[in-house]
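Can't paste images in this forum, so I'm doing it all in text. The chain is below; anyone willing to post the predicted structure tokens underneath?
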Amino acid sequence: MPRDAPTTDLPTHAPAVQAYLCGTLDFDTTQALQRRLAYEVGGNPTCAAVVVCDHPREITVGREGSRANIRTTRFPVRWVARGGGVVLHTPGQVACYPVLPLDRLQLTPADYVAGLSAIVGDLLTGFGVKSEVEGTAVRVRGRRVAHVGVAVRNGVTSFGLVLNVCPDLELFRGIDADGDAAPVTSLQRECPTRVRVPAARQRLLELLARRFDLGRLSVFHHHPTFLPRTPLHAIPARRR
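Text version of the structure:
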């Protein structure tokens, strides 16, 4: 942990979390970073990590997706080893990829996926938006606003969730996420007030730490493998 991060009394089971706020990150770099973090967490389950970013425009297809769900040729398509179906990535979203030791957190993969969906629901509620969870989708009035799709290897998670905060919704025409042709929506479209991406990102991190009973959350711009590590601040664990 960084030397200047404050100390606090934490539950003995709570992994300390390093959060990497990376801005716009291409998908290859994101995958390489997650592999590196999974290696670190696998070797030291007292720690955990999360990558928060957005991506240039690209479609990814998970294990439940197929080429038949894509009716456009506008964007590159990448097949990835995660749950869920088709996701269009674009600026205006928040992609949140926790790298967590499930055994230490005493979670099954199903519990974890349900927890991620609940985090999105809690975030939307905080902005005055009512939502419902349906499989790997979080919906508002029947329209998908977030997608949950994870991978677990050797007990360590990767990938996670993608939330539409304020993307251009016209870009999603021609894409059926998980075979669903219903229109998508965004937090901004459903919220009565202006929503800023940094506010949604910060709230998502807080809810992640609370939902999975994580320890101190230290925030960085980049992982040292890619760029020098510069601590921004630390969010202490929520005291009981």
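Residues 1-12, 228-234 have pLDDT under 50 and may be disordered. Helices lie at 27-43, 102-105, 109-126, 187-190, 197-211.
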